[in-house]
Amino acid sequence: MSTIELEQVAKSWGDTTALRAMNLQIPAGSFCVLLGPSGCGKSTTLRIIAGLESATSGRVRIGGKDVTHLPPAERGIAMVFQNYALFPHLSVRDNIGFGLSVRKVPKAQAQQRLAEAADLLGLSHLLDRKPGQLSGGQQQRVALGRALVAQAHVCLMDEPLSTLMPSCARKCALSCVSCNSAWG
Ligand SMILES: Nc1ncnc2c1ncn2[C@@H]1O[C@H](COP(=O)(O)OP(=O)(O)OP(=O)(O)O)[C@@H](O)[C@H]1O
Ligand SMILES: [Mg+2]
Predict the structure, then answer these.
(1) Ligand 1 nearest-atom number relative to CA 13
(2) Considering the entire predicted model, what is its pTM?
(3) Residue 24 and residue 9: Cα distance in Å, rounded?
(4) Per-residue pLDDT reduced to its tens digit, 38-57
(5) Which of 12, 110, 119, 156 is deepest in the core (most CB within 10 A)?
(6) Same-domain pairing of 166 and 99
């Protein structure tokens, strides 16, 4: 787990300003939730932390290291997107395990993490399906599973529970909390 710090981060595109001068310090090992009306800059903040957008000005630090100009792949972050971003041609199993095989995590360890995440998220019976054969809520849980198995130092989630029924959203939120404490 790593601290995240934003110092005077601003972001604008032409006349549109998403962030003016954002200062934020998130301690390592904690959960931080950004709340605010539509368009206030929540996704932009996450995308800047992940490196998917560059800040117009200001600094981003992760684990004390200045990552303002580092590409996303070098930031050690897992992210759940607002729109799932699943691979349509891959099974649920391969979607969740994709990052593990890319990072060459040993097979037995990868299978164990995958089975644990699928169990926590109620996806064990759907592992052989493709995303197109799932409901919206199930797809969202696959996206969540993919981020959880990565066991990254920072896990960013952009409205990961928004399409789930309240009871399922609560269960998934609790899963995230238990993964945070179990997997550190
Ligand atoms: N690529 C872009 N080009 C221009 N403006 C953008 C771009 N991306 C976002 N914006 C604008 O920046 C502002 C913040 O957008 P952002 O997506 O961060 O909001 P949000 O808080 O995540 O909203 P929501 O709750 O609806 O997801 C909005 O006014 C949006 O229109
Ligand atoms: Mg958003």
Answers:
(1) 4
(2) 0.84
(3) 9
(4) 999 999 999 999 999 999 99
(5) 156
(6) yes
